[in-house]
Each structure stands twice: as structure tokens, then as C-alpha cells.
């Protein structure tokens, strides 16, 4: 998983409408195909907070599409086009090593494992685009709703398959930082408390209790919010989040410090091993 983070960061910031974004997207598709996935590329257009329309590229990788019992795993693969939480170079895009690349990397490693050992259920991995292009905090305009998570909003309204359903979903966002802890976030506990407790209990049994904290925190609007509200699939968010405000995502969040220096192999393993244990114990 660590090498998959490195590879993504090596392309440069994966901001929509840029060459690094296109190149990384092409690599993700080829990588997932090499692991035996059936690929659906969902192409569309979404409107940003400033009124501009930009292209969107959601990548769906399905494993064992014949199985009716399915689990959804997801992350976002794009990166923030500006460092609005930084004190310098605020208008420049960030590397997004943790915020974007880490969740995608863990899912790539899970895909590699599934290519070797067939899981007992069908798995759909969705890599959402245009998640992190939301209204910057230093914008002079009044705060607007629903400016983040545009790829998952699009997918929620236009699923890649008609009447698509899954038993539940797991979203990975910012899952690679050294010493990261993951709280029981409010939206997840509202829509999928049973699934969340099962995942946290699995992490504890594996010895990763120092990362997965039995502490409920305030709800946040992430891709899982739109999956829950638009599709009804109970979906939880494994995300580094410490409290009640947006600033509690970690000191690197939406700054140029979100680079390879924050990524830790042990954290990636804790998250990936927990998710693998959960899906391979499904019936």
C-alpha cells in the first residue's frame, strides 16, 4: 500500500483537468484490471462552487460480478487544487499523500489480495473523483452547501448499474498518517452503527485498538453521507478525525505538509488488514 501511495504522489497533484490527473487515472484503471477487476469508467460533468463545469471520472472495479451478495469499498482519488489551510502558497495544489492517495492505495492492495484469494462475497471498489474541489475556507463568497464530494453525489444519483445495491459500504479517507486515530464518526453511527461496531471490534481483535477509538464524534459530510442519503446503502467512514470542527482532521490537512513524510506503513496496514478481515469473514 505504501508503494501505491508513492506512485500516486509521483504523478503530481491529481487535480481534475490536469495531466497528472489523467495519467494517474489511466494507471489506476490498468492496475485494477491487472488484478482481475471488471472496470466501469463513469464519465460525467459536475458543477463547482464557482459555477464552472468540469469533467469527472469515477472508476468502478467489480470483483466477482456474478455474486448477488456485495460489499462496497470506496475512496476518492483526486486531490485538493489549493492549500487553503496553509500559511503560504495557498493557491497551489497539494500532494494529497494522505488525503486521497492513502485510501486509494489501501483499496489497491486489497484488490491485489482478492486477485490471489477469492473473497466469499462480491466486491465493488469505487474511486470517486472531484471529492476535494469544495469551496475554499478563504473564499469571499458566503458558505455554500454540497460543494465537496461531487463524484459521489453524481454516482448516488446515477449508479453505474441500474438498481445497484450492496449489503453495506466502507469509505476510506485519510487513513495513512503516522499515529492516526479513527473515531466513530456521527454520520456513520446514524446510518450504519452495526457495521461500524463490527469493523471497530475486528480492529480491536487484531490488535489495532490504538488506531480505532470507541469514541463517537460529530457528523461530517464526506462521500459516505451521499451514499447513505442517495442510495440507502449503509456506509461508514474510516477517517482521521478528532473532534467537532473541520480543523480536527490533522495538522497536514489541506496544506502542503500532506506529502509522503506523513505516511506510515503501520497505519496503512492497520486499516487494510482490518477491512480484509471483515470482508473475508462475510457469508
Number of helices: 8
Give the topology string: H per helix, E per strand: HHEEEHEHEEHHEHEH
What is the percent of helical residues? Answer: 25-40%
Query: Strand portion, in percent?
Result: 15-25%
Radius of gyration: 17 Å
Strand arrangement within the widest β-sheet reads 1-2-4-3-5-8
Mean pLDDT across residues = 96
Poorly predicted ranges (pLDDT <50, ≥5 residues)?
Answer: none
> Span between N and C termini?
26 Å
Description:
- By secondary structure, this protein is of the alpha/beta class.
- Helices cover 34% and strands 20% of the residues.
- The chain contains 8 helices and 8 strands, in the order H-H-E-E-E-H-E-H-E-E-H-H-E-H-E-H.
- The strands form 2 sheets. It has a 6-stranded mixed beta sheet with strand order 1-2-4-3-5-8, with helices on both faces. A two-stranded parallel ribbon has the order 6-7.
- Helix 1 packs across helix 3 and helix 3 packs across helix 8.
- The longest helix has 20 residues.
